[in-house]
């Protein structure tokens, strides 16, 4: 179809190099599923097209197919919501990635002890996607939910991932000028080498109301690391506290997770 030949980069933000093995239709279908956020009360085809950058006619065929397969379900007003088949995929992924179950108690304990919000973030195209959150008990924390996306530039989690990726992977991130990327990686690598965590200069933050420190973790067999982060409002988490207390505590928690996670090769 004509519009199937359009916008090949829409589902990955231009982050993936061209490869004859790359299944564009599959990637587009997955981009439709990734368009949904926890706060959504259903999405119509026009909204999905806007979020993915795909033509509306392509989205219409994809949502029909995904609904037939149970990955989407209908909502009032010709809208869609994630369907029950996604629960199967999510439960399977959680079971296979056993490190995630081990991380839960450690991250919740860290959140309670430091009175910060702990998060797990993964790369999703040219954004960072929050995959898990652990809120401190009895403490009002920053508003960030699972499914929320953050930019690479101006976030401790994004700078940490860029620093932990190898150079070709980092260079594939869209919308980051080479000089800007090189500076972020140089600063992040220096921090990871000397102290094992990354704190982005608050003057560079994309959102001034959040301070955060981040540590990378590479699951066995994963092509890219995931990022664990602790964050709070600046009044609760000044840079001095991140450097002296929160950063070392997060680093040690992630190292403990690494020791508890079986590896095929050590």
What would a concise description of this structure say?
The protein has 266 residues and is an alpha+beta fold. The protein has helices spanning 24-34, 45-52, 56-68, 85-96, 98-114, 156-164, 167-171, 178-194, 239-260, and strands spanning 72-75, 79-82, 117-124, 127-134, 149-151, 211-217, 226-232. A hairpin with a 3-residue loop joins strand 1 (72-75) and strand 2 (79-82).
Describe, in plain words, how this protein is organized in 3D.
- This protein is α+β, with helices and mostly antiparallel strands and 266 residues long.
- Helix 2 (45-52) packs across helix 3 (56-68).
- The protein has 9 helices and 7 strands, in the order H-H-H-E-E-H-H-E-E-E-H-H-H-E-E-H.
- The model is unreliable at 1-16 (pLDDT under 50).
- Helix content is 43%, strand content 15%.
Helices and strands in order, then pairings?
Blueprint (H helix, E strand, L loop, with lengths): L23 H11 L10 H8 L3 H13 L3 E4 L3 E4 L2 H12 L1 H17 L2 E8 L2 E8 L14 E3 L4 H9 L2 H5 L6 H17 L16 E7 L8 E7 L6 H22 L6
Antiparallel strand pairs: 1-2, 3-4, 3-7, 4-5, 6-7
Helix pairs in contact: 2-3, 5-9, 6-8
Structural descriptors:
single chain, 266 residues, alpha+beta, Arc Repressor Mutant, subunit A, Beta-Lactamase, two-stranded antiparallel sheet, 9 helices, 7 strands, 43% helix, 15% strand, globular, disordered N terminus
């Amino acid at each position: 179809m004509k519009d199937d030949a359009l916008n090949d980069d829409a589902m990955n933000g231009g982050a993936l190099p061209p490869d004859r093995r790359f299944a564009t239709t599959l990637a587009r279908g997955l981009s439709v599923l990734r368009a949904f956020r926890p706060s959504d009360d259903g999405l119509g085809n026009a909204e999905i097209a806007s979020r993915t950058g795909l033509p509306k006619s392509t989205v219409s065929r994809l949502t029909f197919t995904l609904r037939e397969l149970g990955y989407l379900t209908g909502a009032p007003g010709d809208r869609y919501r994630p369907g029950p088949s996604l629960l199967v995929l999510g439960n399977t992924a959680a079971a296979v990635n056993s490190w995630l179950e081990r991380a839960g108690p450690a991250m919740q304990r860290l959140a309670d002890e430091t009175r910060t919000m702990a998060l797990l973030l993964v790369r999703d195209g040219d954004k960072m996607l929050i995959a898990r959150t652990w809120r401190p008990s009895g403490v009002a924390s920053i508003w960030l939910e699972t499914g929320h996306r953050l930019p690479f530039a101006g976030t401790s989690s994004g700078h940490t991932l860029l620093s932990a990726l190898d150079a070709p992977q980092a260079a594939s991130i869209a919308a980051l000028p080479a000089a800007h990327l090189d500076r972020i990686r140089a600063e992040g690598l220096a921090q990871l080498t000397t102290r094992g965590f990354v704190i982005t200069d608050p003057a560079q933050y994309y959102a001034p109301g959040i301070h955060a420190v981040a540590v990378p973790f590479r699951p066995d067999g994963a092509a890219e690391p995931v990022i664990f982060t602790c964050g709070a409002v600046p009044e609760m988490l000044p840079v001095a506290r991140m450097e002296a207390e929160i950063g070392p505590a997060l680093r040690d928690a992630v190292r403990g997770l690494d020791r508890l996670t079986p590896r095929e090769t050590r």
